[in-house]
C-alpha cells in the first residue's frame, strides 16, 4: 500500500496512469474485484516513466523491453489483417495514427475472494482498443462469450492472447469482431494478468475503410469522443460499439 500511495491513479483527461480503479463513478457503483496499475508506453507525449513503479528495481527496464516487443508484434499483425481486408499492409496502422497510436499497459491483480460467486473480477465488455495483447499467469479466470455462453480460456504457459477491439470491428465493417469477455475470481488463488492495449490516436476519425460507404454498417467517430463515452459509463457488454450501428 505504501508503494501504491506514491503513484495514485491520475486522469489527464481519459488517460489514466498509476495505481487504482477504473469505472468508479459513484458510491452506488458495483466495483470489480480487481486492483490495477496503468501506464502509457506510447506516444512519448503520454508516456511518463518517472511515474512507473521503481520496485522491483528492474521493473521499468523489463516493462519497456516487453512493451517494445508487443508493439512490434501488433504491427506485424496489423499488416496481416490489412492484407486480409484487401488493403495495403500499412493501411490499418496508418488509420490508427502510426507512431502516435496510444499503447497502454495495464497490470490486473485479482485478489482471492471468499464469495467469488457474488462478484466479478472484470465485468463483461469488449475492449475499446484496436487490438489487445494479454499475458496472464497459469490461473484460470478469463472467459469469452460465444453463442450466448461463457467459455473459460485455458492458460497456456508462455502464450499470448490476442483480442480484437471495438475499433478493429469498426474499421473492418464487422469482418473482424471484438470479443466480449469478462474475468472471474477464485476463493483459493489470486491471479495476475498484463494487458497491452493498442488504440488509435485521440484525433483519429474512424469508420469502415476500403469499402463503398453505402455498404458501411457503422457510423464514423472521432476516437477521443468514443474514448470519453467508454470511460464515463459502466462496462456493459458490447453496447458501446453497437451504438455506432447505422
Automatic annotation (TrEMBL):
Q: Which UniProt keywords apply?
A: Iron, Metal-binding, Oxidoreductase
| Pfam families the record matches | 2OG-FeII_Oxy (PF03171)
Residue stretches making up the Fe2OG dioxygenase domain: 100-200
The domain of life for this entry's organism is: Eukaryota
Q: Which GO terms describe its molecular function?
A: metal ion binding; oxidoreductase activity
InterPro entries in alphabetical order: IPNS-like_FE2OG_OXY, IPNS-like_sf, Oxoglu/Fe-dep_dioxygenase_dom, Plant_2OG-oxidoreductases
The Swiss-Prot or TrEMBL record describes its family as follows:
Belongs to the iron/ascorbate-dependent oxidoreductase family.
What is the protein name for this chain? Fe2OG dioxygenase domain-containing protein
Lineage at the top is: Eukaryota, Viridiplantae, Streptophyta, Embryophyta, Tracheophyta
Amino acid at each position: 500500500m505504501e508503494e501504491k500511495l506514491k503513484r495514485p491513479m491520475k486522469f489527464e483527461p481519459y488517460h489514466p496512469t498509476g495505481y487504482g480503479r477504473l469505472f468508479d463513478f459513484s458510491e452506488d457503483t458495483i466495483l470489480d474485484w480487481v486492483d490495477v496499475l496503468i501506464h502509457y508506453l506510447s506516444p512519448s507525449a503520454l508516456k511518463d516513466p518517472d511515474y512507473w513503479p521503481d520496485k522491483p528495481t528492474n521493473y521499468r527496464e523489463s516493462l519497456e523491453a516487453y512493451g517494445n516487443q508487443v508493439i512490434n508484434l501488433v504491427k506485424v499483425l496489423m499488416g496481416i489483417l490489412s492484407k486480409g481486408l484487401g488493403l495495403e499492409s500499412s493501411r490499418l496502422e496508418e488509420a490508427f495514427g502510426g507512431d502516435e497510436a496510444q499503447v497502454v499497459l495495464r497490470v490486473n491483480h485479482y485478489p482471492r475472494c471468499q464469495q467469488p460467486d457474488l462478484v466479478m473480477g472484470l465485468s463483461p465488455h469488449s475492449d475499446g482498443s484496436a487490438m489487445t495483447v494479454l499475458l496472464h499467469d497459469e490461473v484460470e479466470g478469463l472467459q469469452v462469450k460465444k453463442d450466448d455462453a461463457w467459455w473459460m480460456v485455458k492458460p497456456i504457459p508462455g502464450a499470448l492472447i490476442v483480442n480484437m477491439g471495438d475499433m478493429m470491428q469498426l474499421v473492418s465493417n464487422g469482418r473482424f469482431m471484438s470479443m466480449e469477455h469478462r474475468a472471474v475470481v477464485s476463493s483459493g488463488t489470486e491471479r495476475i494478468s498484463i494487458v497491452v492495449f493498442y488504440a488509435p490516436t485521440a484525433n483519429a476519425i474512424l469508420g469502415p475503410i476500403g469499402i463503398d460507404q453505402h455498404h458501411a454498417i457503422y457510423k464514423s467517430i472521432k476516437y477521443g469522443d468514443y474514448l470519453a463515452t467508454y470511460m464515463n459509463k459502466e462496462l456493459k457488454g458490447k453496447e458501446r460499439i453497437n451504438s455506432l450501428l447505422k
